[in-house]
Write a structure and sequence with these properties.
InterPro entries: 2-oxoacid:Fd_oxidoreductase, THDP-binding, TPP_enzyme_TPP-bd. This is 2-oxoglutarate ferredoxin oxidoreductase subunit beta. Helix content is 40%, strand content 18%. α1 packs across α7, α4 crosses α5 and α5 crosses α6. It has a single domain, classed as Thiamin diphosphate (ThDP)-binding fold, Pyr/PP domains (Rossmann fold, 3-Layer(aba) Sandwich). The structure holds iron/sulfur cluster (SF4) and magnesium ion (MG). Magnesium ion (MG) binds next to α4 and β5. Iron/sulfur cluster binds next to α8.
Length: 269
């Protein structure tokens, strides 16, 4: 199946601003799905609200565009009722870790077999550039004209601590690397988190004087480094990219299936 077969072309052109990183991430995801040869009728995508969440409207999977921050809750219901389906949840930084923060940590704790993609552009793009839990201190936003003072979450550390069994980070600039991580995340049995740094030139870039999309992509290239690389050893202040966790633990739907089996046997006896 070719990439265009995974898209709902009647909904194009898309609504993203010129230079937005989200289209690149969609492309990385579709390349991963194409490489894996997955049938679109076996994929479910649930999304919440935000520029990132619009992805679910552009793909020809079973898709649900749901409530802000609640995509993982809907995804949990879908996965429990049809565990054989591949469930993918793209989220923005606010959607995943402010409004949806509780769903995020509890999905990770349960180790339910869902692939969560955190498209982190460090700002609420759709609603006009408010700061998010991933903006970090010293940043400008519509709601912080004199700079933010809030510390940010580290998505990788949060996902690890909450119990996610696959955790990776890449960027829109490193789109082929992101495709590789997404492939592994989809194949992984358990809760997988892939954080992909993205750019919002319209709000974050302008307000924080990071420039246009090309300049923001250069920042992604220059401020990150692969784990285990010489660059990261020599500059520990760089943001690490790579696979941080890849472990096996009992998966939630399988464990739940055992409970149903036990309860059914007990009822029959
Ligand atoms: Fe992308 Fe920002 Fe435009 Fe939203 S507002 S589409 S995140 S560039
Ligand atoms: Mg955002």
């Amino acid at each position: 199946m070719a990439i265009k077969d995974y898209l709902r072309e009647r909904f194009f052109p898309h609504m993203w601003c010129p230079g937005c990183g989200h289209g690149t991430i969609l492309n990385s995801l579709l390349r991963a799905i194409e490489d894996l040869g997955l049938s679109k009728s076996n994929i479910v995508m649930t999304s919440g609200i935000g520029c990132s969440a619009r992805i679910s409207g552009y793909v020809d999977f079973h898709s649900l565009h749901t409530l802000h921050g609640r995509a993982l809750a809907f995804a949990t219901g879908v996965k429990l009722s049809k565990p054989e389906l591949t469930v993918i949840v793209p989220m923005g930084d606010g959607d995943a870790l402010a409004i949806g923060g509780n769903h995020f940590i509890h999905a990770a704790r349960r180790n339910i077999d869902i692939t969560a993609i955190v498209m982190n552009n460090r700002i609420y793009g759709m609603t006009g550039g408010q700061f998010s839990p991933l903006s970090g201190p010293g940043k400008k936003a519509t709601t912080a004209p004199y700079m933010t003072i809030d510390n940010e979450f580290d998505v990788v550390e949060l996902a690890k601590a909450a119990g996610a069994t696959f955790v990776a980070r890449s960027t829109a600039y490193h789109c082929q690397e992101a495709t590789g991580y997404l492939k592994q995340a989809i194949l992984h049995k358990g809760f997988s988190v892939v954080e992909i740094l993205s750019q919002c030139p319209t709000h974050y870039g302008r307000k924080n004087k990071e420039g246009d999309a090309a300049a923001m992509l250069e920042i992604q290239r220059d401020t990150t480094a692969r784990i285990g690389s010489k660059a990261l050893d020599e500059n520990p202040g760089l943001i690490p990219r790579g696979i941080f966790v890849d472990i096996e633990k009992p998966e939630y739907c399988e464990e739940y299936g055992k409970i149903i089996e036990r309860a059914t046997k007990r009822k029959a006896s």
